[in-house]
Design goal:
The protein is 78% helix and 0% strand. It has 257 residues and is an all-alpha fold. The longest helix has 34 residues, at 221-254. The chain crosses the membrane at residues 56-81, 87-106, 127-158, 164-184, 191-209, 221-243.
Length: 257
C-alpha cells in the first residue's frame, strides 16, 4: 500500500459521523410507524397472509396432528367396543389436548421462542397480522380435529353431542389461554421450558378433575356451560395481551431496525 493510500485510509478513519439529533430520531420513528400502518405496506389481505403462512408450517406439524387425531378416534372405538365407561377415553383425550395445543402455540410464537425473524422480515405486512394469520390457521385446524374426536366419541357412547363437546373444549381453551399467557410474559430463552412444564401440569390436572364422576351428572350441565363461557372470555383477553406484545415487538425491534 502506497503512502498516499495510507494517508487516505487514516483520513477516513479519523472522520466522525455526527450523531443524529433527538428530533430527527423521533421523526424517523414516526415516519416508520406511519409507513407500517399505510396501505402501501399492508398490501396483503388476510386471505393472502393466511395462504402465505401456510407454506411455513412444517410437514411434521401436520403429520403429528393427524396421527394424534386418528389414534384418539381409534382408541375411542376400541374402548367403546369393550364397554369401557366414556370418561376413561375422555380423560385420555384431556391429557392429550394440552400437547396438541402446545404444538400450535409453539408454531404461533416460534419466532419469539427461538429469536428468529427471517419469515416475518420477508413479509410485507405488520407482525400482528402475521401472528393473527397463524393463530387463525392453527386454531381452526386444532378446533376442527378436537371437535371431530369429540363428535366421534359422542356417537360411539351414545352421549349428548353438546355435553361431549363441552367436556373437550374447556380443557382446550384453558390450555391455549395458559400457553399464550406464558408466551406473552416469559423471556425468550425460557419460554419453551415454561410451556413444557405447563403442559405436564395441565395434563395432570385435567386427569385428576375428570376422574371425579359427579361432574358428569345432569345437574352439572349448566356449570359446564358457565366454565365454557368463562374459558372463552379468558382466552379472548389473553389473545389481546399476546397480540399487544407482538405489536410492540413489531414496532420497536423488527420494523424500525
Amino acid at each position: 500500500m502506497t503512502q498516499k493510500q495510507n494517508d487516505v485510509l487514516e483520513w477516513l478513519q479519523s472522520c466522525e459521523t455526527p450523531a443524529p439529533s433527538e428530533p430527527k430520531i423521533k421523526a424517523v420513528i414516526v415516519a416508520g410507524k406511519s409507513y407500517m400502518n399505510s396501505s402501501e405496506f399492508n398490501k396483503n389481505s388476510m386471505r393472502d397472509i393466511i395462504l402465505n403462512q401456510l407454506q411455513f408450517l412444517p410437514l411434521s406439524f401436520w403429520i403429528v396432528q393427524i396421527i394424534l387425531t386418528i389414534c384418539a378416534v381409534l382408541l375411542a372405538c376400541i374402548l367403546g367396543q369393550w364397554r369401557v365407561p366414556f370418561y376413561y377415553p375422555l380423560t385420555i383425550l384431556a391429557v392429550m389436548v394440552p400437547f396438541l395445543a402446545l404444538l400450535g402455540a409453539i408454531e404461533i410464537s416460534k419466532s419469539n421462542i427461538y429469536g428468529m425473524w427471517e419469515i416475518e422480515q420477508s413479509s410485507r405486512t405488520t407482525l400482528v397480522k402475521i401472528v393473527a394469520g397463524r393463530m387463525l390457521i392453527i386454531g381452526v385446524i386444532n378446533l376442527f380435529l378436537i371437535t371431530v374426536i369429540l363428535i366421534s366419541m359422542a356417537y360411539i357412547y351414545q352421549k349428548s353431542m353438546i355435553e361431549m363437546v363441552l367436556y373437550g373444549l374447556i380443557p382446550f381453551n384453558i390450555s391455549c389461554t395458559c400457553y399464550l399467557f406464558i408466551c406473552a410474559k416469559s423471556r425468550t430463552n425460557d419460554s419453551l421450558y415454561h410451556l413444557i412444564a405447563c403442559m405436564i401440569f395441565l395434563s395432570g390436572t385435567f386427569s385428576l378433575v375428570l376422574h371425579q364422576r359427579f361432574i358428569f351428572e345432569a345437574s352439572m350441565f349448566w356449570g359446564w356451560i358457565g366454565f365454557y363461557v368463562l374459558s372463552i372470555i379468558l382466552l379472548g383477553k389473553t389473545l389481546q395481551l399476546y397480540l399487544k406484545k407482538e405489536k410492540m415487538i413489531g414496532e420497536l425491534i423488527w420494523n424500525l431496525q
